[in-house]
Amino acid sequence: MRVYLSRWVCRDVDANFERLAEESAEAVAAGAALVAFPESFLHGYTRRLEPARARAHFAAISGRSPATLFAFGSISEERRNRMTLWLAGRELAFYDKVHLFAPNGEDQLWEEGDRYVAVRALGHTIGLLNCNDLRFPEQARALRLRARCDLFLVVAWWPWRRDHVWRTLLRARAMENGTWVLGCCVAASEYPGERFAGAGNYVFDPHGEPVRPMDDRIFELDAGKAGPLLVDPELAFREITRVDLLP
Fold this sequence. Notes:
The chain is built from six helices and 14 strands. The protein has helices spanning 13-29, 51-64, 106-109, 137-146, 163-177, 223-226, and strands at residues 2-5, 9-10, 34-37, 69-77, 80-87, 90-96, 118-121, 124-130, 151-156, 180-185, 188-191, 194-197, 202-204, 218-220. The longest helix has 17 residues, at 13-29. Helix content is 26%, strand content 29%.
């Protein structure tokens, strides 16, 4: 499966919508089955955007390429940081970020989501995670064991100065769950008053091996190259709730 992970530079909302249409067309022309954009890519933390306007664009772009699955990062809607997936002009699934990042004031902007979400598409069961969710292994584990996810899609607004943390957590979630992990992070924000340098985009196979991009944005997921798991985390799972605290 070919995936396209945007190296998005966030500007003003109108410029972002123009670039969204252009980049989506480029990704489809490159043969991507899955096209992903990062967290809050249209409005960042400070720009105002009506969700209905975003949804109209998402429906139009997705409708023009009905065989392509689009992950349009996240938007602010109903006081949630909402990740959305679209196929053939309709919303296939949405996920509200559960683990808000308080140091950036996210707990003042949004309310926490109340459930984890996975969706079946493109021959995979895809678990959805948003940025700071990646720090919580129990979320990925629940998606792996309860929804039988074999791929995690993580969108983010993660800083370049902590790229090593982002990269390490992506790899860890791949290895401990035996899943593909795709991390799509904003490359930068060039909006006045909200300058930002973002972390990189990464793909890891179920063994934690990095998948090298064909260019800066396109990755090939080849299950044949990855090979079978040495230890299947699903088969090896034992749920133990007892914890002994010894003197």
